[in-house]
Write a structure and sequence with these properties.
The chain is an alpha/beta fold and 336 residues long. It has 12 helices and 11 strands. Helix 2 (56-72) packs across helix 10 (275-289). The protein is globular, with a radius of gyration of 26 Å.
Length: 336
C-alpha cells in the first residue's frame, strides 16, 4: 500500500514564502496602480528660485505659486538656491528627477547671457522642459542718497574723475543686472567696479545701509525704498518707462539712444518630463495667466506680466541668446 510521505519542512517553508511574496508583490502593484490612477500631481511640488530671499524672483514666484496651487491640487513649496546669478539652481535642475516635482522659476540670465560669459553645464534649450514665460522688466539704476548723483550724467562724470572710488552692486555675475551695468559702462565709458551679491535682497540691503553707492536692481524690491527716500532712482534700462516708476526716465530718454537691457522670468523643469506633467503644468499656467487679479499682483512686484506658451518661450530664449551674444562680444563684457 502506497503511503503519502509528509512534505519536507523546507518545501513547506518555501511554499509559504512564495505565497507571502506573491501577496506582497500584489499589494505593491495595487498601490503603484492606485498612485498612477491619481495622476500628476499627487504630492507637493518643489519650486526653486536662484536667488536669496527678498529679491524680485522671490516676490514674483509667490503670487504665481498661490494661483497654481488650486489649479494643480497640491501645495507648491518655494526653495531658495542662490548663487552665480541663478546659475547654481540651473545646474541643479540638469540633475533633478524628471518627474514634475522639481521645477525652477528662473530668470533669463543663465539661459541667454551666462553661456556667452563662461562654460556652463547645460544646453539652454535641450537640457530643460520649458513650460512658459511669466513676466519681464528692465533694471533700475538706483543710488544711495548720500551720493552726489542726481542723474545718469553725474554717475558717468564722477566715475571718470575718480575711477577707483565708485562701484555698483548687482544680484550676481552673469545675471541681467550685471549685464545692464557692463552694457552701461561700455556705452558711457563710466569706470565702475562690479560688486556681485547672491541675490537682489542682500544687494538692496547693502545699498540702503551705504555699503555700496550704486545698484542695478530689479524694480519690485526698490519700490518701497524709493518712495521712502532711502534710495534714489535715476533711470530704467528698458525702452519703455515702468508702470511701477512712471516718473523715472529710461536710459534712452537721458541720451543713451536705443539702450535696452531687459530680463524676464519663466517656469521650467528638467528635460524628459512626462507628457502628463507637461500638459497639466502648461494648462495651469495658461489658466493662471488669464486671471486679471494675478496679473495685477505680478505687476505690483515690478515685473510686467506676460504669459507665453512653451513654443513662444523657446523662441524668446533663442532671440535673446543671439542678442546678448552680440552685446557681450561688441562691448567686450567679461565674467569676473
Amino acid at each position: 500500500m502506497d503511503l503519502a510521505l509528509p512534505e519536507p519542512v523546507a518545501s513547506r517553508t518555501q511554499g509559504s514564502l512564495s505565497l507571502r511574496f506573491a501577496a506582497v508583490a500584489g499589494l505593491f502593484v495595487v498601490s503603484v496602480s492606485a498612485a498612477l490612477a491619481q495622476g500628476y500631481p499627487n504630492k507637493p511640488i518643489r519650486v526653486l528660485i536662484g536667488y536669496a530671499p527678498g529679491g524680485s524672483a522671490d516676490a514674483g514666484v509667490r503670487p504665481l505659486a498661490r494661483a497654481l496651487e488650486p489649479l494643480l491640487g497640491q501645495p507648491l513649496i518655494i526653495e531658495n538656491r542662490p548663487g552665480n546669478a541663478g546659475g547654481v539652481a540651473m545646474e541643479f535642475m540638469v540633475r533633478a528627477p524628471a518627474d514634475g516635482y522639481t521645477l525652477y522659476y528662473f530668470d533669463s540670465g543663465p539661459l541667454t547671457v551666462a553661456p556667452h560669459l563662461s562654460k556652463v553645464g547645460y544646453n539652454n534649450l535641450t537640457s530643460f522642459a520649458h513650460l512658459g514665460h511669466v513676466c519681464g522688466s528692465g533694471s533700475l539704476l538706483v543710488v544711495h542718497p548720500s551720493t552726489p548723483f542726481k542723474n545718469v550724467a553725474d554717475v558717468v562724470a564722477a566715475s571718470k574723475r575718480e575711477p577707483s572710488k565708485w562701484s555698483y552692486g548687482t544680484s550676481g555675475v552673469g545675471g541681467p543686472h550685471h549685464l545692464s551695468g557692463e552694457y552701461f559702462k561700455s556705452v558711457t565709458g563710466a569706470s565702475l567696479l562690479h560688486v556681485p551679491y547672491k541675490g537682489g535682497g542682500p544687494a538692496m540691503t547693502d545699498l540702503m545701509g551705504g555699503q555700496i553707492p550704486i545698484l542695478f536692481s530689479s524694480l519690485g524690491p526698490a519700490v518701497g525704498a524709493v518712495k521712502s527716500g532711502k534710495i534714489r532712482a535715476l533711470a530704467v534700462t528698458s525702452l519703455q518707462r515702468s508702470a511701477a516708476f512712471p516718473e523715472v526716465p529710461t536710459m534712452d530718454e537721458v541720451g543713451l539712444n536705443g539702450f535696452d537691457s531687459t530680463a524676464w522670468y519663466g517656469l521650467l523643469g528638467p528635460a524628459g518630463l512626462p507628457q502628463e506633467a507637461v500638459a497639466r503644468l502648461t494648462q495651469a499656467l495658461a489658466k493662471a495667466g488669464a486671471d486679471k487679479s494675478l496679473l495685477e499682483r505680478i505687476n505690483a512686484t515690478g515685473c510686467d506680466a506676460e504669459f507665453l506658451a512653451p513654443a513662444q518661450t523657446v523662441e524668446k530664449i533663442k532671440a535673446d541668446y543671439a542678442k546678448w551674444g552680440r552685446v557681450v562680444k561688441e562691448a567686450n563684457i567679461k565674467a569676473e
